[in-house]
Amino acid sequence: MQSVVADVGGTNTRMAYSQGGVLVDGSVKWFRNDDYPTFADVLDDFRQGAAVDRLCVAIAGPVMPGHVRLTNRDWSFDAAQLGAALGGASVRIINDLAAVGHALPYLSSDAVVPVVAGRAAPGGQALVVGLGTGFNVSVAHGSGVMLAEEGHTGLPIGVYRVLQAHLGDKAAAFETVEQLFAGAGLRALHRALGGAEMPSQQIVTQAAETMAVYVAALAALCRDMTFQFMPLGGIYFNGGLARAVVGLPETGKVLAAARVQDMFEGTLSDIPMWIVTDDAAALAGCAACLDQV
């Protein structure tokens, strides 16, 4: 049985073959989305006429039952249509952070970097926090993954107070979690603090004041999400912006200091945190997801 997995972002698509719930060594390939009019064209280029029996596609965005349209590219996915084009293949479409959640039990030790030391509770659920073009989370427990649209929720009061201390009334411009913590949110925060327009990665490396406020706000958000999701299995940061921000030398100290210290017998003060560094993590999650079908 030939299985294909795909991770579709706004700029690139990664694809690989999978077998027995794991990726086939050496099969991962990258494709530049601008080079293809549709996702089906990328798929055709990858498989080169080979038969496909099962396909799992991870996408950045909310997934409706069997159908999704990307918000930053004119691509749409329909499981039934893709399956028919592949000659009756079984097709599954999932959120990209859900895919990373499915991958957590299978990630090797060199696929994650510790940020905050702690002790993961055996069998405890883990929280995946995606920081990139957008913001979202997923909660993984065993082989199950709970979806969320956390980026569209309102800012917690603790986060708002961090902004208010530095921005005053201008803090009201940040209404949702994504408006602050996604890449565009970081750039908006930098402008609100009086900085010039610049790319997110440049802000991370050159704008210390902005990053101090951003990291303090992120720590406050993680504290709130600890109560929301009880991630006793740990918190995993994923995405390009996450790797840049959470990888800063001071970020781990700020996140550790913000952990809940005095409730639930101290269990929340010992939650470990990692950065997922494996670009193929979503693909690995898709492979595991296919094996569960």
Structure description:
By secondary structure, this protein is of the alpha/beta class. The protein folds into two domains: 3-101 and 280-292, Nucleotidyltransferase, domain 5, CATH 3.30.420.40; 111-277, Hexokinase, domain 1, CATH 3.40.367. The chain has helices at 39-47, 79-85, 96-103, 157-167, 177-181, 183-192, 200-206, 208-229, 240-246, 251-257, 281-292, and strands at 3-8, 12-19, 22-23, 29-32, 54-59, 67-69, 76-78, 90-95, 112-116, 126-131, 135-141, 144-147, 235-238, 273-276. The strands form three sheets. Strands 1, 2, 3, 4, 5 and 8 form a six-stranded mixed beta sheet that branches. Helix 3 packs across helix 11. The chain is globular and about 60 Å long. The two termini are 14 Å apart. The mean pLDDT is 92. Belongs to the bacterial glucokinase family. One of its GO terms (biological process) is glycolytic process. One of its GO terms (molecular function) is glucokinase activity.
Work out the helix count. 11
The biggest sheet, with number of strands, parallel, antiparallel or mixed sense and barrel status, is: 6 strands, mixed
* CATH architecture tag of the largest domain: 3-Layer(aba) Sandwich
Order of helices and strands: EEEEHEEEHEHEEEEHHHHHEHHEH
How many structural domains?
A: 2
Beta-strand share of residues: 15-25%
What's the CATH topology label of the largest domain?
Hexokinase, domain 1
Helicity range: 25-40%
* Distance separating the two termini: 14 Å
Using DSSP, what is the number of strands?
14
Low-confidence stretches: none
Mean pLDDT: 92
Global shape: globular
Category from helices, strands and their pairing: alpha/beta
**CATH class label of the largest domain:** Alpha Beta
Radius of gyration: 20 Å
InterPro entries: ATPase_NBD, Bacterial_glucokinase, Glucokinase
GO molecular function: ATP binding; D-glucose binding; glucokinase activity
Organism: Pseudosulfitobacter pseudonitzschiae
Protein name: Glucokinase
